[in-house]
């Protein structure tokens, strides 16, 4: 007879509290039908304030993740919402929206029409919540000579995405990185 035993991860009370605070901040304001807890702007602000009090580094990463969640929620792309939102809410994949952090300092990425596809190139300023191994990033891209830009979601494992660690010693836990495409 073989006995199976699950090994549980040891988590301190403080770590568990931080996870709970982060989960509340990520799910607050997200419709229940989409996997969130519902609520409005006031509840979201309160949840983010609690995350900030728990840990400034946690709050920075949580704010970045929450911004990408909001971009995905407001996207007209239902498939994107259904596919990526659960993993973002569960913190299975970290992410950020570069347009919300750095558009004033950085021009949109440029896309050139190559016939059957677009080739995107440019630099993304240092942005938090981008682990070296796996992340999603929504960044502004200008297609051809257009004056407007569109937000495009990039995966860390796509060809041409180069991750450059840009950690600040005081905020080492925020997984801050710059990207080159």
Q: How would you classify the helix and strand content by structural class?
A: alpha/beta
- The shape is globular
The percentage helix is 25-40%
From the alpha carbons, calculate the radius of gyration and give it in angstroms. 18 Å
What portion of the residues fall into strands of 2 or more residues? Answer: 15-25%
Count of helical stretches: 5
Largest sheet: 5 strands, mixed
Q: Mean of the pLDDT scores?
A: 83
Strand and helix order: HHHHEHEEEEEEE
Query: Runs with pLDDT <50, length 5+?
Result: 1-8
Total count of strands: 8
N-to-C CA distance? 55 Å
Detail the topology: elements first, then pairings.
Layout: H1 13-27, H2 41-54, H3 56-74, H4 78-89, E1 95-97, H5 98-102, E2 109-113, E3 118-121, E4 123-127, E5 136-143, E6 150-155, E7 162-165, E8 177-180
């Amino acid at each position: 007879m073989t006995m199976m035993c699950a090994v549980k991860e040891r988590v301190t009370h403080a770590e568990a509290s931080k996870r709970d605070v982060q989960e509340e901040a990520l799910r607050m304001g997200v419709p229940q039908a989409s996997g969130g807890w519902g609520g409005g702007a006031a509840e979201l602000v309160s949840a983010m304030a609690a995350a900030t009090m728990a840990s400034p580094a946690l709050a920075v990463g949580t704010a970045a993740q929450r911004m990408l969640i909001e971009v995905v929620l407001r996207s007209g792309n239902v498939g994107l919402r259904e596919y990526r939102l659960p993993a973002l809410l569960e913190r299975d994949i970290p992410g950020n929206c570069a347009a919300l952090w750095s558009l004033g300092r950085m021009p949109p990425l440029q896309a050139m029409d190559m016939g059957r596809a677009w080739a995107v190139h440019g630099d993304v300023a240092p942005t938090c919540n981008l682990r070296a191994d796996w992340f999603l990033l929504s960044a502004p891209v200008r297609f051809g000579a257009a004056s407007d830009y569109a937000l495009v979601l990039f995966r860390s494992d796509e060809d041409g995405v180069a991750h450059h660690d840009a950690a600040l010693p005081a905020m080492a836990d925020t997984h801050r990185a710059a990207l080159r495409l």
